[in-house]
């Protein structure tokens, strides 16, 4: 499993979409508090004293139901329940609209060192926002020197030595109606349980570099349908100069499936020999169609092998 990125509570406080306010402690303290879990937990029964399923590494959401429950209790019992909950030391507690932490809650939380936040969103909406942000922030990331395209809906990561024709192939694919996600540098993040999502560097968004011409803005030249800003990676293609003396065994029948590993996740891997006059954009479309067929259980190589076995069996029977 790839390692997650480091995220602090201060990172969350600085995200405008979450509408968060810090209710106790200070920013220097929360800057040292790390969030390691992308799941959040509703306080629920934990405030009533049942803490067996309280996961302290998760952010806890405190809403109207929990607040209404505490309001039914005498003051002494209310404080006792709060102390019991906060003694479990959750990484943070976020109060959702319309609830704000009362004075006694802040007092106990501060004494226990538990950060409190509030948001102007209700629980049902806020939970989706914070999960999306945590998934993004905690995703393990890497960068690769490659092209990323959407070809017939298939996310294709195209690799190869500099000058082999990756950008020219990408441009040709865009002119055929496909979409470019990233040129030259692909930023990849791992999203549990098994997704690899590639995107482009902000500076290079919509741009492609073609030797002899320079930078081309694909959106301005071909329209908004020529580009996309992120795409899940489905397969990896490596363009390699054809060399008869090479020891590399290029696939002939397609009976062997190679895999390429990125951030601990494996993706189907195609090694494509490049010779003078190779129609690489057509080959990329064929690979995309082949990938789609295989995901639907259609494997031409396996069908050929079965036919060959039947034919040999018939000949042996004669």
Please outline the major beta sheet: 6 strands, mixed
What is the 3D shape?
elongated
Indicate the low-confidence ranges by residue numbers.
none
* Strand order in space, largest sheet: 11-9-10-17-19-18
For the terminal residues, how far apart are their CA atoms?
A: 55 Å
The number of helical segments is 10
- Please tell me how large the radius of gyration is: 27 Å
Look up the CATH topology of the largest domain: Rossmann fold
Class of secondary structure makeup? alpha/beta
Mean pLDDT: 90
List the domain count as a whole number.
2
CATH architecture of the largest domain: 3-Layer(aba) Sandwich
Estimated share of beta-strand residues: 25-35%
Task: Report on the architecture of this protein.
With 318 residues, this protein is α/β, with parallel strands linked by helices. The protein folds into 2 domains: 7-137, Udp-n-acetylmuramoylalanyl-d-glutamate--2,6- Diaminopimelate Ligase, Chain: A, domain 1 (3-Layer(aba) Sandwich), CATH 3.40.1390.20; 140-304, P-loop containing nucleotide triphosphate hydrolases (Rossmann fold, 3-Layer(aba) Sandwich), CATH 3.40.50. The chain is built from 10 helices and 19 strands. The protein has helices at residues 9-13, 27-30, 64-71, 75-86, 103-112, 123-137, 166-175, 218-222, 280-295, 300-317, and strands spanning 7-8, 20-22, 34-35, 40-42, 59-62, 92-95, 116-119, 140-145, 147-151, 154-160, 179-182, 185-191, 195-200, 207-210, 214-217, 230-232, 235-241, 258-262, 265-274. Strands 11-9-10-17-19-18 form a 6-stranded mixed beta sheet. A 5-stranded mixed beta sheet has the order 2-7-6-5-4. A hairpin with a 2-residue loop joins strand 9 (147-151) and strand 10. Helix 4 (75-86) packs parallel to helix 5 and helix 7 crosses helix 9. The longest helix is centred in the last third of the chain and has 18 residues, at 300-317. The chain is elongated, with a radius of gyration of 27 Å. The N and C termini lie far apart (55 Å).
């Amino acid at each position: 499993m790839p390692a997650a990125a480091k995220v602090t509570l201060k990172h969350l406080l600085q995200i405008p979409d979450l509408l968060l306010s810090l209710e106790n402690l200070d920013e220097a303290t929360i800057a040292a508090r790390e969030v390691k879990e992308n799941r959040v937990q509703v306080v629920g029964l934990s405030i009533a004293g049942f803490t067996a399923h309280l996961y302290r590494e998760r952010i806890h959401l405190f809403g109207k139901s929990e607040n209404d429950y505490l309001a039914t209790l005498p003051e002494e019992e209310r404080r006792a329940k709060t102390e019991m909950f906060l003694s479990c030391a959750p990484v943070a507690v976020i109060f959702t609209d319309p609830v704000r932490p009362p004075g006694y809650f802040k007092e106990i939380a501060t004494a226990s060192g538990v950060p409190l936040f509030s948001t102007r969103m209700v629980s049902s909406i806020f939970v989706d926002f914070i999960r999306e942000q945590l998934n993004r922030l905690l995703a393990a990331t890497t960068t690769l020197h490659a092209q990323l395209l959407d070809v017939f809906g298939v996310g294709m990561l195209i690799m190869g030595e500099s000058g082999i024709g990756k950008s020219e192939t990408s441009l040709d694919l865009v002119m055929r109606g496909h979409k470019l996600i990233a040129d030259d540098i692909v930023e990849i993040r791992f999203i549990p349980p098994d997704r690899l999502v590639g995107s482009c560097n902000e500076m290079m968004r919509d741009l492609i570099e073609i030797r002899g011409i320079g930078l081309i803005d694909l959106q301005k030249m071909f329209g908004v349908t020529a580009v996309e800003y992120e795409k899940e990676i489905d397969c990896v293609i490596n363009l390699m100069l054809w060399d008869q003396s090479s020891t590399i065994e290029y696939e002939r029948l397609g009976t062997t499936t190679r895999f390429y590993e990125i951030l601990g996740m494996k993706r189907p891997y195609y090694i494509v020999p490049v010779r003078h006059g190779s129609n690489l954009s057509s080959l990329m479309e064929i690979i995309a169609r082949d990938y789609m067929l295989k995901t639907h259980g259609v494997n031409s190589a396996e069908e050929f092998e079965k036919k060959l076995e039947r034919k040999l069996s018939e000949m042996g029977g004669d």
